[in-house]
Amino acid sequence: MKYHVTAKDVAKLAGVSQSSVSRVYFEGASVSNKTREKVLAAAKELGYRPNEFARSLITNRTKIIGLVMKGIHNPFYPEVLKQFTTAFNKLGYSILFVSTNNDEIQKEDIDMLRNYNVAGVIITDASLSLNVTEDFKENQVPLVLFNRKIDNDQFYSVCCNNLDASEKIAKYLIEKGCSKVAYIAGNANTSTSRDREKGFTSIIEKNNVTLNKYTSDYTYEGGYKTAKKIIAEKEVPEGIFVANDIMALGVVDALRENSIMIPAETKIVGFDNIEMASWPTYNLTTWEQPITKMVEQTVNYLMTEMVEFSGYTESVEVNGALIVRKTT
Amino acid sequence: MKYHVTAKDVAKLAGVSQSSVSRVYFEGASVSNKTREKVLAAAKELGYRPNEFARSLITNRTKIIGLVMKGIHNPFYPEVLKQFTTAFNKLGYSILFVSTNNDEIQKEDIDMLRNYNVAGVIITDASLSLNVTEDFKENQVPLVLFNRKIDNDQFYSVCCNNLDASEKIAKYLIEKGCSKVAYIAGNANTSTSRDREKGFTSIIEKNNVTLNKYTSDYTYEGGYKTAKKIIAEKEVPEGIFVANDIMALGVVDALRENSIMIPAETKIVGFDNIEMASWPTYNLTTWEQPITKMVEQTVNYLMTEMVEFSGYTESVEVNGALIVRKTT
DNA sequence: TTCGTTTTTGCATACGTATGCAAAATATCC
DNA sequence: GGATATTTTGCATACGTATGCAAAAACGAA
Predict the structure, then answer these.
(1) CA B92, B98, B102, B108 torsion-angle sign
(2) How far apart are the first and last CA of chain A?
(3) HEC per residue, A276-317
(4) Taking a C-beta distance cutoff of 8 angstroms, is the pair A285, A328 a contact?
(5) Nearest alpha carbon to residue A187 among A259, A125, A280, A276
(6) Which residue of B lies nearest to A51 if distances are taken between CA atoms?
(7) B73 touches chain A (CB under 8 A)
(8) Which of the nucleotides in strand C have any atom less than 7 Å away from a protein CB atom?
(9) Contact between A53 and B49 using a beta-carbon 8 Å cutoff
(10) Which residues neighbour B233 within 8 Å (Cβ) at sequence distance 6 or greater?
(11) Residue B139's closest chain A neighbor by CA?
(12) Which nucleotide is nearest, taking the CA of residue A7 and each C1'?
């Protein structure tokens, strides 16, 4: 069976006690340089690694972050995953990854995180109800909704400024001369889609512009099908705001298949600024979500709450920017 | 501070001993149905969850798989991530995620996995040297190279049949009438790129077909730049085999920008069958990597080795298939 | 050198759980 | 009902580590 080098083995070789070995690995503990060097030399010789489980049992803390991700297919999220991993690794934390298909997180999705006593939880692009998270709250595990918000003041969430951004996109399309526009929504009941629609709609309605709204589902196929539907209605709008980029790319492809000139006949604006948006084939005008800032904000909140849990909640919005390319 | 319900609390409420509580949660342990029901009722009432760390300390085993991923940007890998997560969750295992940029895994990349006593390790699309893995081997932690192989009989690896596939792609392009072809490689020294090149080259050289080879780096930008370079050489080949899809999409875009008709003037074949390959804009002919089978093979090997470590090594190749679309 | 203060160290213990072992309880057979 | 076999149970212990506390050591000032 497996043999582990323990702190006792190191202590013996270094000629100190096990608790001195422990103190060497615990930041800020009182230990002389002489002892520290002896211990580190012995540890190196023996290939010692502290056992995180034993530590966690004593300290009742871990260096594990639970990251619950829906929609890893959307190219926006691999980038989010990468940045979270990098940021937390630098801080000595590891990522326990959970993938889900559910728009609303179910208890089964994340119960496992409690077995591992995770230090914090991040949930991307999915909502969840209070009863699913009450255990986390009771156990003072901070939780962040990333790119999703719930309007009940019970969570900490980090989003792009969807409302403001969508208002700006509406104004931009109006400035570009559109008098008839469409909005293609993402998954029903998601805060991102709702806010993007709300912002866009509020400006359009204040101006002499016609608006049709369509529902879709934040996938390439959804965008493609919806555009086909719009085309079938025979009055293709001059401007289309699509709730996210991956959908927008489907819209672009469908319009092209029907020889609709972009942007001459119809201008397209997406949301996210995924990698593919900049590809020459698409060159999509889009609202850039400030991933790095959003990740930073999330990491800062968690690091603060993990040190001293206050349970404070807030809906944080980070400003993005309009990236103008060839679809408008 | 946090309060945990322990097995002792459950035992007290259920009127049994702590070890009976433990036996209820341990598969196959001897416990009467009467005791089991009492314990489960008490556990439910108190919201008890077994502490994985305490368990691991005793059993010296975990239900954690370390998944080390390079290149999460390539749409091939989010799908791999999702399938691994789903498969292992079903088996009661969790994924500890590590992201790396290194073609060759460094010790720092995965040392942390040892602190968590992971039950198994999967490394996607990266190589590593023996000295990085010797601790894992000594500690009988099985490790799988996914979509990468190293020709030294020291690892278990799971790949697509790159050699065979590339031979078939070469034959296919020859059948399509190509007398001048090019191969665009992925990252230098990767088994996937090397085998794809080897297979392609071996068939091309046996036939009266001209071949030019180019190096690139498995990114869209790499494909785009290399195609630009090919175009600048003024003799655009009739067929181009691109070592992976994301690169191939860049090649397609570059050719189009230069009004080169695909497939009339130049046929393009990629490798992977990522989601974007099927988009109408690209409709890329490609070799489909059998992700599901490859994931399955990996999971089976790990489940076997984790139960009883044998350390056996093999290079497993899973058959993919040619998907013919509009670029050829 | 002595004394007071500060730092370092080791001892003993506990964290929550699984498990070896022996005792207790239950089941089966005559 | 008694003897035997089997199953279940609780006790005591250990896993590897951090930590409270008191003792020992080190440091600095007079």
Answers:
(1) negative
(2) 65
(3) HHHCCCCCCEEEECCHHHHHHHHHHHHHHHHHCCCCCCEEEE
(4) yes
(5) A125
(6) B115
(7) yes
(8) 7-12, 14-20
(9) no
(10) none
(11) A2
(12) D16
How confident is the prediction for chain B on average, in pLDDT? Answer: 92
Tokens of A79: 């980038």
Q: Looking at residue B276, what DSSP letter applies?
A: G
- For chain B, give every domain's residue range: 7-50, 64-160+291-319, 162-288
CATH label, A64-160+291-320, candidates 3.40.50.2300, 1.10.287.110, 3.40.190.10, 1.10.10.10: 3.40.50.2300
Taking only the tens place, the pLDDT of each residue in B162-187 is 999 999 999 999 999 999 999 999 98
- Distance (Å) from the C-alpha of residue B158 to the closest C-alpha of chain A? 22
Mark yes or no for CB contact B98/A85 under 8 Å.
yes
Identify the helix (H) or strand (E) that includes residue B99. strand B94-100
Q: Please tell me the predicted confidence (pLDDT) of residue A327.
A: 97
Structure tokens belonging to residue A290: 């400030």
Mean pLDDT, rounded, for B17-35: 92
Task: Please tell me which residue of chain B has the smallest CA distance to A112.
Answer: B94
Is it true that domain A7-50 has CATH number 1.10.260.40?
yes
Can you give the pLDDT at residue A3?
63
A6 touches B at CB < 8 Å: no
Gap from B317 CA to chain A (nearest CA, Å): 26
Of B206, B202, B222, give the one whose Cα is nearest residue B270. Answer: B222
Topology of domain A162-288 in CATH is: Rossmann fold (3.40.50)
Considering only CA atoms, which of A237, A238, A247 is closest in space to residue A215?
Answer: A247
Chain D bases near protein Cβ (<7 Å): 7-12, 14-20
Average pLDDT for runs of 10 along chain A of length 328: 80 94 91 93 92 91 93 91 95 93 85 90 87 83 92 90 95 95 90 92 93 93 95 92 96 95 96 95 96 96 92 93 96
Judge whether B64-160+291-319 and B162-288 match in fold. yes
Query: In the structure, what pLDDT confidence band is assigned to residue B264 with cuts at 50, 70 and 90?
Result: very high
Of B53, B73, B79, the CB nearest to A53: B53
Q: Across the interface, do A51 and B117 touch by the CB < 8 Å criterion?
A: yes
